[in-house]
Structure formats: C-alpha cells, structure tokens
Amino acid sequence: MIRTRFAPSPNGPLHLGHAYAAIVAHGLARARGGEFLLRIEDIDGERSRADLAREFLEDLAWLGLAWNGPVVAQSARLAAYADAGEHLKAMGLLYPCTCTRAEIAKAATTIGPDGPVYPGTCRHGHASPEGAAWRLDVAAALALAGPLEWVDELAGPQQARPDLFGDVVLLRKDAPASYHLAATLDDAADGITLVTRGADLFAASHVHRLLQALLDLPVPVWHHHGLLVEAGGRKLAKRRGAPSLADRRRAGEDGRALAEALRAQHFPAGISLSAILHEEP
Ligand code: GLU
C-alpha cells in the first residue's frame, strides 16, 4: 500500500503553494488506495510556532483534505534523531564543525544545491565538539555505502550524488537535527513509500538516499512535483504577498472549491506551475 505525506514547517502560514503540495500528496494516495499522513516539521525551535501548526490542521480540513492516523510532530522524536546521530558518530562518519556561515562563504570554492559548499575545514578533527554542529563526511560515507540509486516517478532513475552538497550538517548547533536527518528518519518511521514534495527539494533526495543506506532504512520512491510560481518564475512566498490559506479561510472563501481548482490545475491569474526542475549533476 502506498503512503504519502505532507510535511509543512510551522514557521510561516500556509499559502497556495502549500495547498497544491498537500493536494498532490493527498491525491496520489487516494488515487492508489493508499494513505496520506500529516507531519509537522517543528524542530526549528526559534522559528516553530504551535499556533501556526494548529492553523495548518484547520487549513487542510477547510480544503477537504483528510489525513490518516494521528498528526506526527518532529518535536516528539528528538530521541530518535539523537540516537541516529550517535550511531553515525560511532561509525566514524560525523565530525564536529564550528565554522560560521560567513567563514564557509569565504572559504568555499563551489556552489551546491543549497549555496556555498562547505570546503571541509574541520574534517580532520580541528574543532572541539563543544557547541559544534556535526557534519557527515560524505566521501567516507559514500566509500562505505557504494554507488546508490533512487527513483523519482516523474524524472526517472537517479544516480545518488550527495557529494554535490559537500559535508552536510546532520546535527545542528541550534536545533536537535538537520532537515536531512529528521526528514529521512521520519519518512522511515512513518512508513512513507512515496515521498511527495516540491521540485525545489529534488537534490535533497541524494543526501536522503545516502542516509537510508547508512542507517539501514527502507528506500521509498520519490515524486517531486512542480512548484507554483509567479510571473517571472519565482516561487510563491508569504513575504512577497501570497495570501495565507488561513486569511482566505477566515474571509469565507470556499476551500473545497479552491482545492478542486488546484486539482484541475486551474491557477489564479499570474500563477502557473513551473516545469519540473531537477538538477543534472
Ligand atoms: N518541511 C519542508 C517544508 O516545509 C518540507 C520537507 C519535505 O517535504 O521533505 O518545506
């Protein structure tokens, strides 16, 4: 049975782009007789807001999207992230890093999918673990895991290229885990068989595939859908004035009609679906 999920982060209200993402995940599950889960990605302590997470449930109900089972929150799973971190440390694959963003930007010589690629400054044991972030030694991890493949339903089979990101942070200084570690562990714990999300996270799946190999987790299939973009191609963002679903709901708009329109890919004027982007290594 297939199981998909919608995994919003409660650090800003949901807008039309999120509604589309939720509709894709829900629609794929329903069309194939599967399940659709809702997961709140709330480990970003400073930015996560419980009031927004509560609004998300109302937004989805307003759109007519029912989810299966209880809502999962990442904040309830911190022990699992710490355990996986310890496991990877014991395998000798993580190292502490105290470099600042500015130092990395200055020393970096390549730009990866997430910006400047960490040049490996602390890889050979220079940093004290006190207050450090922990990075994955990607070359060592790949040597252990060997070549890996993963499949996106839309883009086809992919050769995993986590090296494009450099040594990613898995345990953050300021949060219990990085997105990569938490999302990968959660998708496994939740039995997600089809990871459905926007094409802006396509490249992240290279890293997730490597983590699955290292942590002996099941390997799902991915479905990276197109993003809703404004004229000019930028993705919708609250800070650029995309109205929140909560505001539209409170203004009395019909959420189910909106969901129907999105399902039929009828978007408001000036908004369209981007071509499916996917990075070629
Ligand atoms: N929490 C992420 C976001 O809100 C989504 C992560 C995912 O779907 O893997 O953009």
TrEMBL record:
Gene3D superfamilies assigned: HUPs (3.40.50.620)
GO molecular function: ATP binding; glutamate-tRNA ligase activity
EC code: 6.1.1.-
Residues in Glutamyl/glutaminyl-tRNA synthetase class Ib catalytic domain copies: 2-248
Any one Gene Ontology cellular component term annotated for this protein: cytosol
Keyword Ligase: yes
UniProt keyword Protein biosynthesis, yes or no: yes
Annotated transmembrane regions: none
GO biological process: glutamyl-tRNA aminoacylation
PANTHER family in UniProt: GLUTAMATE--TRNA LIGASE, GLUTAMYL-Q TRNA(ASP) SYNTHETASE
Family according to the record: Belongs to the class-I aminoacyl-tRNA synthetase family.
Protein's recorded name: tRNA glutamyl-Q(34) synthetase GluQRS
Source species: Novosphingobium flavum
